[in-house]
Design a protein that fits this description.
Length: 496
């Protein structure tokens, strides 16, 4: 394999001994072994826990790594030309920037840290805060803010108050990584003080930490992402799941003093559960399939009437994601979920057989004698509940129900009663009519009422064993690619 790194870059090649790419211990991996190493760019300040995780993962799965440790900003520049698989930065802003440039696809949080002042044990210069860093008798070591995340974050936090420039002018030793700053103070005695990550300082017995309220106000998220250039995205994501598992990789971060995120339970091939209203499911089906293939996981889906789904949840079912046909059915189980986001919208419409021989134009026309109608069950489906509310609002509920000969369990099935000529009309969602209307199998009549809409919210379960994996699926459903699928099925996109 060829790597496009400049010759001056130094890589640490962590090689397996023994039987090469055969699995040596523990669980079997279902992923194919390609023989190629995973190339990972990693912020130097996080080297200690990462090296332990890499070694553990290598022994478990027979996968080698080609690594480069440097400042997060320097790495960001390198991966543009070098390619590779993974980018682990000391602050999430680097991942956001690289994804905006099309270099990173998924990214996942690992832990949090914040900048502190580090001094030698005993604090011989009696440094108490930021103002002391400007003293003439203090030799100050700082990392370059264009190369290292710790100084980039510090500059961002202190610049609005005017504190950054005076401190930066006092720098006697300028370094490329946070570790070099810590070494200056703890080992080389070439600095009296510096600004480092709290977790980094905690890894040195010869350092003391001076906490600064201005720097603690914005804990920074250590984050890892999969590069678009990766030729092994499923393997890279498998490693990310291992790294961000609370009973695998995150234990190493916790050991070194990092405040870890709420990680996933470790399962070799996890299964996450999605409950979706039958109306919504066709719009997310392709996204779910692509997610399964890329992540190497299983998504168990249950699609049906939202009333039925709510009943299952009230009886004890706790899906990882619930995608409701309407906000009313999300409200019924909101205590089980984190805050919902409104994804899409569809109008309620009247459908008739082709030709509309009864000349139906409004919901009031559904009360004329002799009609045979279908309405959805208000107990089992969001459409049924919304229809009942709409008809009651206009004083038409009893009149329309007098013509109701079929109670449809779902909107999709209700459409087919009319298409097959068994009924004269029905109230359904516009999204249910797209394909049949294109084929000329029915007439679609708008309902002139602002309440004749359904909004589809999506939420993640509070009790998910896989909060990070589930969040990645949520993100895919809310992505620009997913928007195209919703448009194809006649939904109006609501996600900003």
């Amino acid at each position: 394999m060829k790597f496009g790194f400049a010759s001056a870059f130094v890589f640490s090649v962590l090689m397996l001994t023994g039987l090469g790419f055969l699995l040596t211990t523990g669980e079997n991996s279902t992923l194919e072994q390609t023989g190629e190493p995973l190339v990972i760019y990693c912020a130097a300040g996080i080297r200690l826990p990462v090296e332990e995780v890499l070694e553990e993962y290598e022994k478990q799965y027979g996968v080698t790594f080609l690594t480069k440790f440097a400042g997060s900003g320097e790495l960001k520049s390198d991966l543009r030309v070098g390619g590779g698989d993974l980018y682990l930065a000391a602050d999430v802003t680097y991942l956001i920037e690289t994804r905006e440039r099309g270099l990173v696809r998924e990214f996942v949080p690992i832990a949090h840290q914040y900048p502190v002042i580090a001094v030698r044990k005993g604090n011989p210069k009696h440094i108490r805060g930021l103002e002391d860093l400007q003293r003439d008798d203090v030799q100050l070591s700082l990392a370059d803010p264009d190369r290292a995340a710790v100084s980039k974050v510090t500059r961002k936090l202190l610049k609005p108050s005017g504190q950054w420039e005076p401190i930066w002018k006092r720098v006697a030793v300028q370094r490329g990584t946070v570790n070099e700053v810590a070494n200056d103070i703890a080992k080389l005695a070439s600095g009296d003080a510096g600004i480092v990550w709290n977790a980094t300082a905690g890894q040195y017995d010869d350092l003391e930490i001076i906490s600064v309220p201005e720097l603690e106000q914005s804990p920074n998220q250590i984050t890892i992402g999969v590069l678009e250039s990766s030729k092994q995205p499923t393997r890279a994501l498998h490693f990310i799941r291992y790294l961000t598992s609370r009973d695998r990789g995150l234990k190493h971060f916790q050991k070194f003093g990092y405040k870890i995120v709420n990680g996933d339970k470790w399962v070799e091939k996890p299964e996450i559960v999605v409950f979706s209203g039958g109306l919504n499911f066709p719009a997310i089906e392709e996204t779910i399939e692509e997610f399964e293939n890329r992540e190497g996981v299983t998504v168990l889906t249950t699609a049906g009437g939202c009333g039925t789904l709510v009943g299952q949840m009230k009886a004890g079912a706790h899906p990882d994601i619930y995608f409701s046909c309407d906000v009313s059915f999300m409200s019924d189980v909101k205590d089980l979920f984190l805050d919902a986001v409104n994804v899409s919208q569809t109008d309620m419409v009247i459908i008739t057989q082709k030709g509309n021989e009864h000349r139906i134009q409004t919901i009031k026309d559904l009360t004329q004698q002799g009609l045979e109608l279908a309405l959805c069950d208000p107990q089992k489906s969001a459409l049924g509940r919304l229809t009942e509310q709409l008809l009651r609002k206009h004083g038409l509920l009893n009149g329309v129900r007098a013509n109701q000969t079929v109670t449809g369990p779902t909107a999709a099935e209700t459409v087919m009663y009319v298409v097959n000529g068994k009924l004269d009309a029905a109230i359904v969602y516009k999204a249910n009519t797209i394909h049949q209307a294109k084929r000329g199998n029915l007439e679609v009549i708008p309902i002139d009422d602002p309440d004749a809409i359904a909004i589809q919210p999506l939420a993640v379960g509070k009790e998910s064993d896989f909060p990070l994996l589930t969040e990645r699926l949520r993100e895919q459903i809310l992505s620009a690619n997913s928007k195209k699928s919703f448009g194809k099925f006649g939904f109006k996109w609501l996600v900003e």
